[in-house]
Design a protein that fits this description.
The protein is α+β, with helices and mostly antiparallel strands. Helix content is 38%, strand content 15%. The relative contact order is 0.15. The structure holds zinc ion (ZN). Residues 80, 82-83, 85, 117, 119-120 line the site of zinc ion.
Length: 127
Amino acid sequence: MQSTRQRAAIVDVLTEAERPLTRDEILSLGRVKIPKLGSATVDRAIREMRANFEIIGVEFPGQARRYELPAAHEHPHFVCRVCDRVFDLPVKTQLPEIKAPRGFLITGGEVIYSGTCPDCLKKRKQA
Ligand SMILES: [Zn+2]
């Protein structure tokens, strides 16, 4: 199988999801597009795409690493405390500038909000 097709499928999956996905989520959504998509193939594609900065790895406390497409601007993430999914919040944020303590070089930061996502809120109302 051609690797460009698998990479394109991964980009499609991430574009359609509009939120950072775990490797397992990428694999299962990718199989909707390419039924024979193998897990080793996805792992290799993820590794290569990360090295090329085509996708970015993001980590959240207590969760498997997730991947997202490079964003045009900084945006906060939102972790649903009910379903554990992570969402991009389409709002502009700016990290507060801090003075690095001696010995630290700060190269990035992350704003994470948490709460209940629209799907889980809807389910709660119906229950
Ligand atoms: Zn949820």
